[in-house]
Amino acid sequence: MFEHGDRIYNQMMGSCQALCCAVLDIDHFKKVNDTFGHQAGDLALKKVAKLLQEELPVSSVVARIGGEEFCALVPGGKEEVVPLFEGIRRAIADLPLCMASDSKSIRITVSIGISSEPGRNLLDMLSRADAYLYQAKKEGRDRVVF
Length: 146
What we know:
Elements: H1 2-14, E1 19-26, H2 29-36, H3 38-55, E2 61-64, E3 69-75, H4 78-93, E4 97-99, E5 104-106, E6 110-115, H5 122-138, E7 144-145
Parallel strand pairs: 6-7
Antiparallel strand pairs: 1-3, 1-6, 2-3, 4-5
Helix pairs in contact: 2-3, 3-4
């Protein structure tokens, strides 16, 4: 992600186009794994990744950057990108995760931090988005902070 992300970042900054960096974290992911098993956790990761791929513009770069954390570079200003991620957050909260083995359905939520300030480089932008993510967690989870 970082090699491709750096290239996208530099292109967007060089052409003075707006770019946002979003960091998304599945809330209480350890509890999902501990309560429903790793199969449920894997399903949650796959469903979130699929939804991100389907909902984000084709020109976006999406990557899983940690256990339950994803990062997305999305062309556009926060006026366009924040509502997009609000919709993604709601779609994930409404997404039932059906476990075929026992027909249980569980639901997950996500917290999202979005940075629209370019900073000095991609890592700087990612750090800001990560700080907003932690603010979202601190404010109660299942929200977008920018």
